[in-house]
Protein: ParD-like family protein
Amino acid sequence: MGIVKINDQLHEDIRKASSVMVRSINAQAEYWIKVGMLAEANPSMTFSEIMREQMKQADVDLRKVIGG
Structure:
């Protein structure tokens, strides 16, 4: 574990997003970092495609989750 310095406005944006997404501030920051890394590593994929692939890798059957 380490400390990452970010500006106050970004911290405030993370705090606000974390309350909407029902995540801790740290979990929200980690999520955004992971998604950003995945997006940079896969520039031709959309956000939805990245999330679908992550769910597939985690063996989550989205049809069961969304009732389809």
